[in-house]
């Protein structure tokens, strides 16, 4: 039972971690709380349905194309929406409200185009992977392997590439990076591309894990994702990855019957936010965040 819950927690946590990293990359540079990120994920999930179910492509190839499509959407919105708003010196609250409005627009466009009916990827529902005493469905097996590769790649990107170093420089001090000769516009576009790729990947994996999903997919995951962002330290990519994995494990392991009978699975999100509140009471800047003195 414990190993099964541990495996389920890794699957759930991996999806949350990837999405939280995508939010943190943009927030770290632009201080933009993109409330529409869940609907970027939904767009990626439905793009995956188009290529996997409608066009018959293998799920891995369909996921790669869906990631590219979501990255294209992310960059397009940067040029059409976010960059013009920054040029007009829109404040934090204005940008946040715009992101809420964008979320509603994207969600209802997806409803109009795809319809409200649940969708399912074309993967073998009877395939099962047995690891010790844990059993993972084929979709869960794909999700955990692909998510693990994605987490490793994002870590390597941030830590070991020139683009990653420039992103960290902009996150530390954007005006100073600009004075130092960093082409901030290009780095910001690169950040949106990476964020969009992660949104598309997280959306497809979330759709796989949930078996069937509808246009509310991203919205239902948004609060745990933001909880992971805050838990790890707002704007810290590594913290977001760790926070997402920790929350996923906490949510699943909380139902273990050996822990005082466990909690009802319905209340798993409550456990996640309880853990968040506890951490913030002890360490307000998050697990990996830096304390700020004003």
Description:
The chain has 294 residues and is mostly helical. It has a domain at 14-214. 72% of the residues lie in helices and 4% in strands. The chain contains eleven helices and four strands. The chain has helices spanning 2-30, 37-54, 59-87, 92-114, 138-160, 162-172, 174-179, 184-209, 217-232, 237-253, 268-282, and strands at 119-120, 128-131, 134-137, 212-213. The chain has a two-stranded antiparallel sheet. A two-stranded antiparallel ribbon has the order 2-3. A hairpin with a 2-residue loop joins strand 2 and strand 3 (134-137). The longest helix has 29 residues, at 2-30. The protein is globular and about 55 Å long. The model has no long low-confidence stretch (mean pLDDT 87).
Q: How large, in whole angstroms, is the Cα Rg? A: 19 Å
Proportion of residues in β-strands: under 5%
Summarize the helix and strand pattern as letters.
HHHHEEEHHHHEHHH
Using the alpha-carbon principal axes, give the shape: globular
Percent helix, as a range, is over 70%
Low-confidence stretches: none
The strand order across the widest sheet is 1-4
């Amino acid at each position: 039972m414990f190993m099964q819950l541990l495996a389920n927690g890794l699957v759930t946590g991996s999806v949350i971690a990837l999405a939280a990293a995508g939010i943190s990359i943009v927030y770290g540079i632009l201080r933009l709380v993109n409330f529409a990120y869940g609907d970027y994920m939904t767009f990626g999930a439905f793009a995956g349905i188009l290529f996997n179910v409608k066009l018959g492509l293998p799920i891995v190839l369909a996921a790669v194309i869906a990631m590219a499509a979501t990255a294209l959407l992310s960059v397009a919105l940067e040029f059409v929406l976010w960059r013009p708003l920054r040029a007009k010196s829109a404040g934090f609250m204005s940008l946040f409200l715009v992101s809420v409005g964008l979320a509603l627009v994207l969600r209802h466009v997806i409803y109009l185009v795809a319809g409200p009916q649940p969708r399912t990827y074309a993967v073998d529902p009877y395939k099962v992977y047995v690891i010790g005493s844990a059993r993972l469905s084929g979709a869960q097996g794909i999700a955990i392997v692909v998510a693990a590769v994605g987490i490793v790649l994002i870590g390597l990107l941030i830590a070991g590439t020139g683009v990653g170093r420039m992103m960290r420089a902009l996150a530390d001090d954007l005006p100073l990076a600009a004075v130092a000769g960093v082409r901030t516009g290009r780095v910001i576009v690169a950040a949106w591309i990476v964020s969009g790729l992660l949104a598309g990947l997280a959306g497809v994996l979330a759709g796989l894990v949930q078996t069937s999903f509808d246009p509310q997919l991203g919205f239902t995951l948004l609060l745990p994702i933001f909880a992971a962002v805050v838990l790890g330290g707002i704007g810290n990519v590594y913290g977001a990855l760790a926070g997402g994995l920790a929350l996923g494990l906490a949510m699943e392991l909380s139902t273990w019957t050996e822990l005082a009978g466990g909690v009802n699975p319905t209340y798993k999100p409550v456990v996640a936010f309880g853990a968040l509140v506890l951490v913030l009471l002890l360490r307000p800047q998050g697990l990996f965040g830096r304390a700020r003195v004003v």
